[in-house]
């Protein structure tokens, strides 16, 4: 049965979902977007008719016989995979019985699809809240058991070698088997060469005692470690040579300033007027030169104790650094240090970041805050520092710049903290900004259904931005609240009801 005939079984809204689920690998996400838009237009919209239609019995021909099959089994395997992924995203807001009935119908498909079987079992686990059974197919289980059995016998010949020999015996020529054959050939050649040696020497090479094996391993490890150290030293030396070679492209006054500026990066040195004069070369750099200068100065490797002194000198410069130069300096000096934070930033680092952000807010937003947010791993230490910048250092229009950045990045708990801090600063949002934000809230609501940070952020929206909520936004926020599973849900619903349209 072709797709057009299958579509006739659905109502208009369900057909949109069917179309979305047919759009290749992105079908599940497309269907979620369609579903969210339908919920915004009609908060009472439900997928029950769609699920019931998929479970309806449909006559079809199988092996020259007329049989009845659930409608969902007549769709392609790609459609079924997208459907299961889509249900996995939104199942918490659907009737459990309807979803489980659909999963039972999918198990009646004649086609054996291992991905579909694994997705069905995973979804059943999530709905029932259990972890019984396994996601592995019978073939996969048998293969793993056979593999484990080969390694269980400590006296078995070769272990991994016997496994590879088994693959070769079965005629499965793989890259591993080819490598193994080469190894065997190499071993044979070594043994032939050893035939000319005295018996004692040959016996030592073949029959190792445990102590000699350990000594050989230590020697090999030492040789490998020495080789790696030499390679590492060679790479560092090469990088240093490249930098020195590139420094030839710098003007003489910039070359002369490098050793003076490096003294500023020594925590025990004191800066004077000559140091301040040396920093004036940053005014004379073009974008390429400032990048090279920062690399030669190794700003990213400077210790945190040296940062306040260096920062004080930078802030003494007059006039201010250009936008591109300030961005380059901030990137080299701070980005790596903040991204690699595993705990709260030190007092030195906080002082430097806040000082530079106050003096150069836009370069800080574009060269520091935006890259950290876009990395998608904003931990608690990074979030704490960014929230401090938002509250203490940025003007309203710069906060709006950061807020727009958050709409285009992947959200995690750290990003939620930053957004909450931005909302608490009472942003001056346009109608378009607020609409984009509520759309993003709707897309993320399912992923953060149990997040207290997300719930508190929603409460800030409903209490501090009531004047921005229009009928369309009201539907969107209502859809967001339907997925919330925290104890704040009743407070959120009450706040939404108080908004007069």
From TrEMBL:
Taking every annotated instance into account, which residue ranges of this chain make up the domain Fanconi Anaemia group E protein C-terminal? Answer: 247-499
Q: Which GO terms describe its biological process?
A: interstrand cross-link repair
Report residue spans for region: Disordered: 183-250
CDD domains for this protein: FANCE_c-term
Specify residue ranges for compositional bias: Low complexity.
228-241
Name the domain of life this protein comes from.
Answer: Eukaryota
Basic and acidic residues: compositionally biased ranges: 186-224
One Gene Ontology cellular component term attached to this UniProt record is: Fanconi anaemia nuclear complex
UniProt protein name: Fanconi Anaemia group E protein C-terminal domain-containing protein
Tell me which species this is from. Answer: Phoxinus phoxinus (Eurasian minnow)
């Amino acid at each position: 049965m072709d797709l057009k005939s299958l579509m006739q079984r659905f109502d208009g809204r369900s057909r949109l979902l069917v179309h979305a689920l047919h759009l290749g690998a992105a079908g599940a996400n497309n269907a979620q977007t369609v579903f969210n838009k339908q919920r915004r237009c009609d908060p009472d919209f439900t997928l029950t008719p769609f699920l019931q239609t998929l479970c309806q019995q449909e006559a079809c021909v199988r092996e020259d016989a007329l049989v009845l099959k659930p409608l969902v089994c007549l769709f392609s395997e790609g459609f079924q995979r997208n459907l299961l992924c889509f249900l996995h995203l939104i199942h918490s807001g659907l009737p459990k019985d309807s979803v489980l009935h659909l999963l039972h119908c999918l198990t009646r498909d004649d086609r054996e699809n291992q991905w579909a079987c694994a997705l069905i079992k995973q979804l059943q686990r999530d709905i029932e809240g259990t972890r019984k059974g396994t996601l592995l197919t019978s073939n996969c289980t048998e293969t793993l058991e056979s593999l484990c059995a080969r390694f269980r016998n400590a006296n078995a010949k070769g272990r991994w070698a016997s496994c590879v020999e088994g693959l070769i015996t079965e005629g499965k020529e793989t890259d591993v088997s080819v490598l193994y054959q080469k190894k065997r050939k190499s071993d044979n050649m070594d043994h032939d060469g050893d035939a000319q040696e005295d018996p004692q020497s040959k016996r030592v090479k073949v029959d190792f005692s445990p102590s000699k094996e350990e000594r050989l391993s230590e020697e090999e490890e030492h040789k490998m470690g020495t080789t790696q150290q030499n390679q590492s030293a060679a790479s560092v030396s090469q990088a240093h040579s490249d930098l020195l070679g590139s420094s030839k492209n710098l003007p003489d006054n910039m070359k002369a300033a490098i050793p003076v500026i490096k003294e500023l990066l020594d925590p025990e040195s004191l800066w004077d007027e000559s140091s301040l004069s040396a920093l004036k070369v940053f005014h004379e750099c073009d974008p390429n030169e400032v990048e090279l200068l920062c690399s030669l100065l190794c700003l990213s490797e400077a210790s945190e104790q040296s940062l306040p002194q260096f920062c004080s000198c930078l802030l003494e410069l007059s006039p201010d650094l250009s936008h591109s130069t300030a961005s380059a300096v901030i990137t080299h000096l701070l980005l790596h240090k903040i991204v690699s934070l595993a705990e709260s930033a030190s007092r030195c680092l906080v002082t430097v970041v806040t000082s530079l952000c106050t003096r150069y807010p836009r370069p800080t937003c574009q060269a520091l805050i935006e890259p950290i947010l876009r990395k998608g791993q904003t931990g608690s230490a990074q979030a704490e520092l960014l929230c401090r910048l938002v509250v203490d250092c940025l003007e309203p229009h710069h906060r709006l710049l950061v807020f727009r950045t958050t709409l285009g990045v992947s959200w995690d708990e750290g990003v939620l903290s930053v957004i909450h801090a931005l909302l608490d600063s009472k942003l001056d949002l346009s109608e378009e900004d607020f609409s984009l934000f509520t759309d993003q809230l709707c897309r993320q609501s399912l992923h953060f259904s149990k997040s207290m940070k997300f719930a508190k952020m929603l409460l800030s929206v409903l209490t501090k931005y009531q004047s921005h909520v229009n009928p369309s936004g009201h539907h969107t926020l209502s859809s967001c609240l339907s997925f919330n599973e925290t104890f704040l849900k009743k407070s959120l619903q009450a706040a939404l009801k108080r908004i007069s349209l």
